[in-house]
Amino acid sequence: MKLRGSFLLMLLLSLVLILGACGGGGDEESDAESSDSSETTDESSEEAEDSEGEKTLIFARGGDSESLDPGSTSDGESSRVTQQVLETLLTFEAESFELEPGLAHDWEVSDDGLTYTFYLEEGVKFHDGTDFNAEAVKINFDRFADPEHEYAFADHDYVYFMYSTMFGGHKGDEGHVVDEVKVVDEYTVEFHLNKPLGFFLQNMGMSYFAITSPAALEEYGPEINENPVGTGPFKFVSWTKNDSIVLEKNEDYWKEGLPKLDKVIFEVIPDNAARLIALRSGDIDIMDGLNPDDAAGVESDDDLILYSRAENNFGYVGFNVQKEPLDNELLRQAISHAIDREAIVEALYAGYGTVAKNPLPPSYLGYNDDVEGYQYDVDKAKELLSEAGYADGLEIDLWTMPVARPYMPDPETTAEIIQNNLAEIGVTVNIVREEWAPYLEKTMNGEHQIYMLGWSGTNGDPDYFISSLLHGDLIGDSNREFYQNEEVDKLLNDAKVEVDQDKRAEMYKEAQAIIAEDVPMVPLVHSTPVMASSSKVKNYVPHPSTSESLEEVDLE
C-alpha cells in the first residue's frame, strides 16, 4: 500500500480554496497548516514507498489528536491512537460494553464491593523493554489520583479530570472512592475503596486508564503526552502535528500472532468529502466521519465497505451559563425553542440520526423519556425572549467546531441552520471559527457564549455522560457550560456509589429532569455514525466507544 503524495497535495490545496471561500475567522491559520501538511504528506509518501511490501493501514480522520497521554484528555481522536499503543486492565467486547480480560486475565470483587483484586498477565513487556507488573499498575493509578505525584506534571497544566469524574475526585477529595492501590505480589494488585462505586469495573476498560511504562514517565516527564510507551500491539514512531501519527508493529506483542499489520498511519484530512475521495482513489484505507448522504453510494460500491457504530452519543449546543447574557435562564429557554432540531436531523443525517432531548442516549440506564425537551416553537421563543428583556433582539456569538465528529458530521451547516433559526426571533448570531485544539482549550476556559460539541460514551454507563458534562466539580474541564446545581451534583454523587442499578436509574432520571428545566444545553441529535473502508480491509469492527484496537485488522 502506498500513499500517493501528488494526489494528496492536490487534494489539500483544493481544501484550502474551499475553506477560504467559507469566510470567517481563522482562515489564514488554516491555510498555513494545510500548506505545511501537504509538504509532510509528500515526505510520508516517500517513506511508504521505501517500505514496499509492508502491510500499512492508513486511517484518515477529521482532526488531530490532542494528547497521547491517555489520562489527560477526553477527545476521541486521542483515544483512537492511544488504544493501539497502550492497554487497560480490562477491555470491552468488540461490539459492546461487556467486559473481557485485558492486561488482567482474571479479577475478583469482595462481597462488600470495597476490594477489587486483579490477576495480571505475566511476561508482558512495555515497548521500552521494561516489565509490566503490579507496581506499574500502582504507579499509573497513583499518578492519576494524586495531583502532587512526581509523574502528574501539574506544573505543566496536566489535569487528570477524567479520573476525577469516574472515581469521585482526586486524592484528598471528600468524594474520592479509592483508598489505596496495593501491590500484593508481582502480578497481583488490589484496589481498596472507601465506599462502593457502581461502575468501577467498567472504568477499568476505559482507554483513559491505560497503563504507561513507569520508566518512560521518568524519561520523558511532561513530554510523555507526545511519546506514549505502553504494552499495546503497536509502538509509537512519530507525530507530525495536524498531519499524521505513525505507529509500527510491536514485534514482541504478548498476544501470539498479533498484530497482523506492520504499520498504522493516522492521517488528518479535515473535510469529510475529501476523505471519501481519498478512499475511492486508494490513498487511504479507512475513513471516519462519512457524510450520511454518502452512505448509500458507499454501500453500493463493491470496492468499499460501509460500517456503522451503535447510537452512543449526542451532539449539542451548550451555553456558558455564567457569562452574560446566557446567565439568563429565560433567554436560554427562548433559544432552545427557536432551534429546529428536526430540520437539522432531516437535512444532515440521511436517516442516521434521531432528535435528542436528554444528555444521554435512549438505550442507557436511567434515560428519562418523560422529559419533553424544547420543541421548535417560534412564537413561544419570541414570548420568552421578550420576557427575558430582549424584545428588540440581541447579538451573540456561536462557536462552531472546525472538524466533523461522529455526532455532528457537518458542524458548519449545523451552525448556519441555527443562525437562520435564531434570526427568526430577532437574535443575530455571529459564527466564530477556531482550529480544533484552540477550540477545545478556549471553550474549556469559558471564552465562549454559545458553542457546539458532543459526547460519545466510552464505558456504557450514564455517569460518563451526565457527570462528565454537567457536574459542578468539572467546571473548566469537560463542563464547558460552567453549570452547577447542588441538587444535581448530589444526585450524581449518590448515583456513583449506589450499587443497586434500579436506584441509580431513578437518580439519573431525576437529574435529567432538573437539567432540562435549567437548560444549560440544547441536545440536538443522537447519531448512528457511519464510516467506510476499502474492501481490502479485513476484520475491522467499529466499537460504540469510537475507538477500537486494530490488532486483528488485516489487509489482503
Any overview of this molecule?
By secondary structure, this protein is of the alpha+beta class. It has 3 domains: 5-70 and 232-309 and 530-555, Periplasmic binding protein-like II (D-Maltodextrin-Binding Protein, domain 2, 3-Layer(aba) Sandwich), CATH 3.40.190; 87-213, Dipeptide-binding Protein, Domain 1 (Dipeptide-binding Protein, domain 1, Alpha-Beta Complex); 313-527, Dipeptide-binding Protein, Domain 3 (Dipeptide-binding Protein, domain 3, Roll), CATH 3.10.105.10. Helices cover 33% and strands 20% of the residues. The chain has 17 helices and 21 strands. The protein has helices at residues 5-22, 27-50, 76-85, 134-145, 161-167, 200-203, 214-220, 272-280, 295-299, 329-338, 341-348, 378-387, 411-423, 436-444, 462-470, 486-497, 501-518; strands at residues 56-61, 90-92, 99-101, 104-109, 115-120, 178-185, 188-193, 234-240, 244-249, 263-268, 286-287, 304-308, 313-319, 353-355, 394-400, 427-433, 450-456, 521-527, 530-534, 537-538, 554-555. The strands form 5 sheets. A 7-stranded mixed sheet has the order 8-9-10-1-11-19-12, sandwiched between helices. A 6-stranded mixed sheet has the order 14-18-13-17-15-16, with helices on one face. Strands 4-5-7-6 form a 4-stranded antiparallel sheet, covered by helices on one side. Strand 6 (178-185) and strand 7 form a beta hairpin. Helix 10 (329-338) packs antiparallel against helix 12, helix 15 (462-470) packs antiparallel against helix 16 and helix 16 (486-497) packs antiparallel against helix 17 (501-518). The N and C termini lie close together (10 Å). The relative contact order is 0.16. Residues 1-50 have low confidence and may be disordered.
